[in-house]
Every structure is written in structure tokens, then in C-alpha cells.
Sequence to fold (348 residues):
Amino acid sequence: MLHSIDSEILFLKQEDVIAAGLLDMKQVLAAVEKTYQLLGNGHIKNPPKVRTRIPDDDNWQSFFNSMPCYIGGDVNIAGIKWAAESKKNAVTPGIPYGIDVTILSDPETVLPFCILDGTLITAMRTSAVGGLLAKYTAPSNTKAATLVGAGVIGRTMVMAVCEAIPTLEKIYLCDLDLPKAQAVAAEYGPEYAKKYGVEIIPTSDSKGSALQSQLIVTETTARRPFVDSSWLTPGCGLVSMASDEVELDVVRKADVICIDYWKQMITYEGKAVTRLYQNGELDQNGVSELGDLVLGRKTGRTRDDQFVFATSMGIGALDILVGYEMYKNAVKAGIGTKVRLWDKPLWE
Ligand SMILES: NC(=O)c1ccc[n+]([C@@H]2O[C@H](COP(=O)([O-])OP(=O)(O)OC[C@H]3O[C@@H](n4cnc5c(N)ncnc54)[C@H](O)[C@@H]3O)[C@@H](O)[C@H]2O)c1
Fold:
């Protein structure tokens, strides 16, 4: 329980987190925007994630990321996301590629007060960041978007771009595994046509779709860059959510580069932005960070003829703030299972 010495913890399994309202993309977008406002105003301590890749960095088959943070301002909670991904899961039916657990802690007593499934929180908050970046990246009057990758993040990205880009009429949902894109389009198609007036077209022709779109968003498990300059049309916006999707030359061509968090981005070897930084071709002045964008201190796109590139790595504070919103909803609705860290601590 928050702000007490009682060791009670609310445990929220995935079904509980859903019942607490997680699939409401509007609410998640609001929490994500608030996270970047707090970050931009210096109220968040969010050290770069620590990675453990198995068996090693070059040949990893699975990895675990430790993502701690403290959120101050009017929130005042600490927490950590224990985030993991496995290549084997990508080809194993019945288990997600990424699996995460989130712990929320009281910063004064340091007691954990909620442990919750973080897997769907990751999907929702990641795509909400994608949606937020798309807002600063897409040209005005964007009618068509190409989403590359119809996995878990691709699915939530459909929700996010529909919320973030009100002019949207068409989404090309692309995947090398066409039946996957077809299944998501069949599931969401009727609802999204009705709710947003958006048609979802499944395809495996990512580049062909990109050439017919004003906005491209990539959320794949590709291990080598596959987006080169021939994908770009004048004035398009490109948002890349994963590590190794985009050739360096694409970023070099950008008139504006938007990123989520510079301090963390430069610690990650695989990102095109990091490589340009390491080559001495890019520094922090050359990018607009989300914290500055949401506070209006920096601009994303300012003209429709610019090519704007955006990318993110995600920060633990997103998971903790979204998780905290779910915790509050769950407490109000009486959702979840109460467990205890101890009845009485043996030694104090
Ligand atoms: N930026 C962030 O904060 C953040 C957070 C979580 C996950 N991610 C990244 O998002 C990516 C997607 O994660 P997921 O959970 O949706 O994985 P997933 O396995 O559910 O889906 C990935 C999809 O990409 C498709 N794909 C792979 N290469 C492709 C290509 N070249 N062209 C078209 N489709 C291709 C696969 O067929 C698969 O359907 C991962 O790389 C993950 O690391 C980023």
C-alpha cells in the first residue's frame, strides 16, 4: 500500500491490467505526453537501460533490460520495468516476443506497492510514443500511412496513428508474414472504419506502400537496415521504433530529426542516430527531443516539404507512469490480487 509501512502489494495480471483500462489508447497517449513533459522539466530520473544479452552482444538470442526510474513532480513514485525479448518466442506460437514485468515502489518507504504485467503496457506505450512522434513528423493533411511490422507493436501502432493523425484515411499494414497483417486488418478493419474512417490494407509490399504514403512507421524485428533513401517521397515523415531498420543515409537526408531521449539513445550501438553521433556527424543540437517538443521549446516539422525522421528507444518512466495510472484505476474498481512481501519482517 502506497505511503504506509504495510507490505501489501497489489498484483495485476494481464487480464486485470486490461480491465483497468489499458487498451484505451487516448488515456495512454495522455500519460505518455505527461511523461515527456515531466522529463523535459527535469522531474524524472531515468538512467539509461542496462542490457544483459544472452549468450553475448553479437549473437544474442534473448535479452533482459533493467529500466529503473523515479518520477517526481505531482506523481512521486519510483519503479522499474524488467523488459525481455526472445528470438525463439518470435517463432513459438502461444508466447509473445517481448515479455515485461513492472514494479511500482513508494520512494519514501521504498516498499513495492504494485507488481503488474508490463507486456501490454510496453506495447501500448511504445506505440503511443510512435503516435506522438508521428504528430511531429507527418506532413499536414496526411491521408495514407504505411506501418511496417504487424506484430504486437504493429497492432497497437494502428491504434496510435489513428488517434494521433486525425486526417488519416488509409493504413497499409505490411509484414513479410502476410497472413499476420491480414489477421490484424480483419480484426480491426470494421471497427477502425467506423470509429476513425480509416481503411486498413494488409500487404507484404512495404516499399510500394511507403511510396504511396505521407507517413511511414516501422516496428519490425529486422536485424539489418531495410529502409533506404529510395523509400522516401518529398515531404514524407518516417518514424522508426526498432534498432536496425534504417540506413545511415536516410537519417543524413533528414531536415529535422526527432528522438525520444538523447542521453539514452547515444548509449545504444545499433541505432542509426547513435552511429552518426559516434562518427561525429550528429550532436544533441542536431535533434529535437520529445521532452522539448511537448513543451514547445523545439519544433518538429515546420514545413510540408521537409523530410522528417524520428526514432525512439523507450524509457522506463513511460511504463511506470502508465502502470501507475492502471494501478489507480484498479484500486478504484477493486481489481487485482493482494499479496504480501512479509507478514512481519524478520529483522529490522
Ligand atoms: N522503441 C521502443 O520503445 C520499443 C519498445 C518495445 C519494442 N520495440 C521494438 O519493436 C519491434 C517489434 O516488436 P514486436 O513485439 O511487435 O515484435 P513481433 O515479433 O510481435 O512483430 C515483429 C514483426 O515484424 C515483422 N518483420 C520483421 N522484419 C520485417 C521486415 N523487414 N519487413 C516487414 N516486416 C518485418 C515480423 O514478421 C513480425 O510480424 C522489436 O524490434 C522491438 O525491439 C521498441
Notes: The domain at 128-311 is CATH 3.40.50.720 (Rossmann fold). The chain has two domains: 8-121+316-340, 128-311. The chain has a mean pLDDT of 96. The first helix runs from residue 14 to 19.
